[in-house]
Amino acid sequence: MGNAREYDSFKTQEGEEIYLYQATNYDGEWNDNYARHPIYCPECGNALLRFTSKTSNHCAFLSSMPIPPNPEHNRDCSHRYKPISKRGAREFYNTCNHEQAVDKINACINLLKRRNFIPATGDENNQPHRPHLTVRRLVNGRERRCRLRTRSFYSIYKLEEEDIGFPIVFYGRVYLSVDSLESKSMDHHRFNVIKVHSIYKENRLLQSLYFGDNTINGLEKEHAYLFAMIGVPERNGNYINVKFYNRDYTLYRIEEPDQD
User: Fold this and answer.
1) SS3 annotation, 129-140
2) Distance from C-alpha of 112 to C-alpha of 8, rounded to nearest angstrom
3) Which residue, 71, 99, 126, sits at the end of a domain?
4) Nearest-angstrom CA–CA distance, 237 and 235
5) Which of 138, 178, 228, 258 is the most exposed place for a label (fewest CB within 10 A)?
6) pTM of the predicted model, to two decimals?
7) Confidence at 80, pLDDT banded by 50, 70, 90
8) For residue 257, is the peptide bond before it cis, meaning its omega torsion is within 30 degrees of 0?
9) Is residue 89 situated within a structural domain?
10) Are 158 and 59 in contact (CB under 8 A)?
């Protein structure tokens, strides 16, 4: 299936980004609005994608062919390369410096921007350029570029058991708020959570992120923000939720969307 799991959105011929759930009906079949037109990689907008409908064995998904490295993608597009392993991702985030980690968050914020991209700061290139979502890893004794895992907040519902413990950069254009809650433990201590809501589908709650004693000032109600964070899926009863990869060192970025 190549890197099918890495696509949770696509670009239209007009350059509009559409999330997969917006383009499928209740049965996981292709919406006629998009079935008649080509769709493209959400990152570079160049490589053609194809849609596979939902079956009893898998959810609907998007894929590109041939299997990466795919020359149809732009040179700097991370989708040219195979996704990193869980072990490789954990090793990268456990050993990289602050600037390198922030670059990966900024790379996802840039996916949501149409202009005024955030330049890279954490690598050896001194010229202003976009941060990349790839890292160099030793694979079978050879150095190769691998794509770090990313996932929009709008496709968290597709997380599976094998994703638990896998560091992922989550991102999206969303509504944000910080709420204070009381624990159910004996001491009834209070803590904050970041609530991530959809700007579509009647403000549906996409995720609640434990935020400890931290807070974010100045968030406006029902105001769309560009939000990205380094997180990790964890099992919570019958559900898979997301938490910050390091609760003591939360890495995230909030940006205002580009003005139309």
Assistant:
1) CCCCCEEEEEEC
2) 13
3) 71
4) 6
5) 138
6) 0.87
7) confident
8) no
9) yes
10) yes
- Are both 40 and 167 inside the same structural domain? no
78 in a structural domain: no
- Give how far Cα 249 sits from Cα of 97, 207, 216, Å: 12, 19, 15
pLDDT at 4: 45
Of 78, 80, 76, nearest in space to 64 by CA: 80
Which residues face 144 on adjacent strands? 137
Average pLDDT, stretch 32-49?
84
